[in-house]
Amino acid sequence: MTQPDTEKALERAHAHATTWLGSLDARPVPARAGADAVADALGRDLPDEPTAAAEVVDLLAEAVEPGLVAMPSGRFFGFVIGGSHPAALAADWLVGAWDQNAVLRQVTPGVAAVEEVAGAWLLDLLGLPAGGGVGFATGATTANFTGIATGRDALLRRAGWDVARGLAGGPAVRVLAGRERHDSVDLALRYAGLPAPELVDVDEQGRVSPDALAAALRAGAGAPTLVLLQAGNLHSGACDPFEACVPLAHEHGAWVHVDGAFGLWAAAAPAYRHLTAGVGGADSWATDAHKTLNVPYDCGVVAVRDPAALAASMSVHGDYLIQEAGDPFGRVPEMSRRARGVPVWAALRSLGRSGVAEMVERMGRHARTFAEAIATIDGAQVVNDVVFTQVCATFGDDDRTRAVVERMLADGTAWTSGSRWRDRAVLRISVSNAGTTDDDVARSIDALRRAAT
User: Quick one: 95 and 230 in the same domain?
Assistant: First the structure.
């Protein structure tokens, strides 16, 4: 491929990207076409002859566009999905152009340096111990796996077991978690070869009960134990009481890992920092940059208090590698990966400490606006304490609530999710996009009123 070919393809990609971004304010949020229709438009048969790169880009953009959901829109409130900060999006384009395999410090010093700076900034911003190991993974599921596997290995070493022998025949590791932990934690445990967690009772907002945790710890005294806590309940936004639970777990020799996919970012905002008080006392943490920080997909972050423990679990030696202490591949499972930390650096450098705090607090303000408006809709009820960025509401019985969810999707103005919490069908609103404006919220509330009528 020649340089002119490359330039033409990039020019076409830039044109299609800016057209897409410019359409977000006016377009309906749901996709207009399904996957089968998009596959038909792309063409299902592999062509025999080459096609010019610019033509391929045009075909791709034109065929896929009807099947795109306006997730970067300020009116997408489904799941917990952020948008893309302009600096992070542009940096992500550079990551693709640079095409660095960001695993060895000596081989790719430029992106290694960017990720090291970004990692240190994250520890500072989130109130985590300076000097901890930070890795950039695909998402919170993989970040949780990394922290859990590191904790598993540390616990087994303390018990005198050589983890190089595998898990068979070794001491059984107990796992304790709240009844309302995120399902991805169970998946991460499965990846790590650990059992499903023993469930600890929670309060009405999904926060672990310290008394219940204490009882569970006493019941298995002496066994290697992993305690999983949560910053940001999927439905309520509440955080576990870290100031009570972390020291309690440590008194019993447990490793404490915190799943903070979106809720850990409360620590970066003065108005919400109280929610995560004590979280810095844990041993490992996981979060998503592609949620609250608004970097493009995909980017999860794992942090471990002891960087040597992280490297012991994730690193490997190869005679053909050019290795040194602190290589990036010693902090995540992959030995081949893009430089995911570069967009994180760009977002943090652009926003600064005050910008991150303002962004997080703005998301919380929008959530409160939604809750206040829902409370005025006949038959509607907000069923969680809106302490952060999550709102859960019912609209009468389960059938009516599900109907409202369906009518919202059919309307297309905004995307809100259906879920089930506390044995009730609920409509979930997750404010995660830094681009959401007051007007986006007002338009979405109007749509919600129409759907509830």
Answer: yes
Q: Tell me which residue has tokens 């979405």.
A: 444
> Which residues have a Cβ under 8 Å from the Cβ of 421 and sit 6 or more positions away?
235, 383, 384, 392
* Whether 362 and 227 share a structural domain: no
* 132 and 27 in a common domain: no
Average pLDDT (367-386) is 98
Chain-wide mean pLDDT for the chain?
96
Q: 66 and 114 share a domain?
A: no
Span 127-145, pLDDT tens digits: 999 999 999 999 999 999 9
- How far is the C-alpha of 237 from the C-alpha of 390, rounded, in Å? 5
Instruction: Record the pTM.
Output: 0.96
Same domain, 398 and 447: yes
Q: State both tokens at 99.
A: 């095409």
Answer yes or no: is 84 within a domain: no
Is pLDDT at 175 greater than 70 in this prediction?
yes
DSSP state of 413: S
CA 256 vs. chain centroid, Å, equals: 19
**CATH (domain of 374):** 3.90.1150.10
Whole-number pLDDT of residue 221: 82
Q: Are 207 and 116 in a shared domain?
A: yes
Domain extent, residue 373, equals 358-452
Number of domains within the chain: 3
- Alpha-helix residue ranges (DSSP H) falling in 132-174: 140-158
Q: Where is 313: in which H helix or E strand?
A: helix 307-314
pLDDT tens digits, one per residue of 181-207: 999 999 999 999 999 999 999 999 999
Strands across the sheet with 174-178, in order? 133-137, 300-304, 284-288, 255-259, 225-230, 174-178, 198-200
Q: 267 and 238, same structural domain?
A: yes
214-272 residue pLDDT tens: 999 999 888 999 999 999 999 999 999 999 999 999 999 999 999 999 999 999 999 99
CA 193 – CA 153 distance, rounded (Å):
11
Is 292 in contact with 260 (CB distance < 8 Å)?
no
Residue 227, judged by CB atoms within 10 A of its CB (0-12, 13-18, 19+), counts as buried
Same domain? 115 vs 194: yes
Contact 89, 71 (CB under 8 A): no
- The whole-number pLDDT of residue 310 equals 97
- Give the CATH number, domain containing residue 197: 3.40.640.10
- Cα separation of 136 and 133, whole Å? 10
